[in-house]
Amino acid sequence: MEVFGYVLFLFTMFVFWTNVQGAVSYTNCTKLTSCSCLTDTGLVVDLSPLTDSSGKAKFSDVKAKSGDDFSWNPCKDFTEKAGTATCTNVAACQIQLSTPPLLFGLGNQNSASFNINGKKNLQVSYSSKSDPKFTRTAIVELVCDESQEGTLTAEGESPPTSGKYYMTLTSKYACAKSQEPSNSSNGLTVGSILLIIVLVLVIVYVVVGVSINKYGRHATGKEVVPNYTFWTALPGLIKDGVLFAFSGCKNGSGTTYDNI
């Protein structure tokens, strides 16, 4: 039973590591489509569930701190009109609230590119060079939040006259996730299956271990807990290991071990 306890602990740590991989940072995301990319950790960021396919923007006329409004639609271009002005077949649109209003396209889906910004967040950018001397670029920072369906805020142009217009999407679809087959969206993920296996093994381990100790070895009290000594010593061993690693692998006297 003691060997089984060691194996169970190591397997539990493996499952924990497997399930937190989506939270691990990545340094690159290669474009797959105009609204999805593949990270260098093998996970995918896919904004397609946020797409409006009606020809309109999913996020429309979002007020920016700079005073302008911005519209954006992942995956598919849209068209927006205001008076006689129009943004035609664009991924993002700037609306200057003048009289009459002025609309400027900020690039279409074909211009989409992905990169990591200075805050270590993924961002998708679109560019338009309608004026030969001036390029307009929409930059949407993607913030992972599993509790949010999708919320867009706009900061506007920064710095002024730069032609760079910033927005921020906070959404669960901005999170990097493992690729799932399209016909298994309602099935269990690999992480869920591993967690179920761990739960079953823990139950079997406890029930069998208690039964052996109580009825086979006639143990009483805390001694009926399988591998009681190992589990009570484990927190201290982990603590000692962490302190040893962070102390530069020095022993208790403060000196390093001799080289082999």
Automatic annotation (TrEMBL):
InterPro entries: Autophagy-rel_prot_27, Man6P_isomerase_rcpt-bd_dom_sf, MRH_dom. Keywords: Autophagy, Cytoplasmic vesicle, Disulfide bond, Golgi apparatus, Membrane, Mitochondrion, Protein transport, Signal, Transmembrane, Transmembrane helix, Transport. The chain crosses the membrane at residues 187-208. It comes from the Eukaryota. GO terms for cellular component: endosome membrane; Golgi membrane; mitochondrial membrane; phagophore assembly site membrane; trans-Golgi network. Residues 33-177 form the MRH domain. It is a single-pass type I membrane protein; Single-pass membrane protein. Pfam families: ATG27. SUPFAM superfamilies: Mannose 6-phosphate receptor domain. It is found in: Cytoplasmic vesicle membrane; Golgi apparatus membrane; Mitochondrion membrane; Preautophagosomal structure membrane. GO terms for biological process: autophagy; protein transport. Its main location: membrane. Gene3D superfamilies: Mannose-6-phosphate receptor binding domain. Residues 1-22 form the signal peptide. Belongs to the ATG27 family. This is Autophagy-related protein 27. It comes from Patella caerulea (Rayed Mediterranean limpet). The lineage of its organism: Eukaryota, Metazoa, Spiralia, Lophotrochozoa, Mollusca.
